[in-house]
Design brief:
115 residues, mainly beta, 3-stranded mixed sheet
Length: 115
C-alpha cells in the first residue's frame, strides 16, 4: 500500500553533514530506525527529506519512498565518509559544527538500538 506524498524534516542538512550533496554528489541510501513498532510495516510513502533550516536548498532527498515513520524515528545514512562534518557551517541559528556521538548497534540482526 502506498500513501500520499510525505515531507520529512530532520535535524541535519546541507549546511551540516550533508554538505557532501553539493560537493561530492553521493548516492544516499537511508535506513529507517523505528523507535516504536510501525502500525503497518507494509505502508510506504513517497516523500522528500528536508534539513532543519528554512533555506529552500536544504533538501536531502527527493522522490524517495520510505516506510511510514513517526516522530522519534531515525534515518540512518551509512557510509557518509569521514569528512562530511569538515565542510559544515553554523547557518540560520543551527549549530552544525558541534559534533555529537550517536552509537547505533544491532538488535535482533537489525540496526535498531541507539545510545
Amino acid at each position: 500500500m502506498v500513501t500520499p506524498h510525505v515531507d520529512y524534516f530532520v535535524s541535519d542538512g546541507i549546511y551540516g553533514s550533508f554538505n557532501c550533496i553539493l560537493y561530492d554528489h553521493p548516492t544516499l541510501e537511508p535506513h529507517v530506525l523505528h523507535m516504536h513498532p510501525p502500525a503497518d510495516p507494509t505502508v510506504a510513502a513517497p516523500g522528500t527529506v528536508f534539513g532543519p533550516t528554512c533555506d529552500g536548498m536544504d533538501k536531502i532527498l527527493e522522490h524517495v519512498t520510505l516506510p511510514a515513520m513517526q516522530p522519534g524515528d531515525w534515518l540512518l545514512f551509512p557510509n557518509m565518509g569521514a569528512y562530511t562534518i569538515a565542510g559544515a557551517c553554523n547557518f540560520n541559528g543551527f549549530d552544525a559544527v558541534g559534533a555529537r556521538r550517536i552509537y547505533v548497534y544491532p538488535v535482533g540482526g537489525r540496526c535498531s538500538g541507539i545510545v
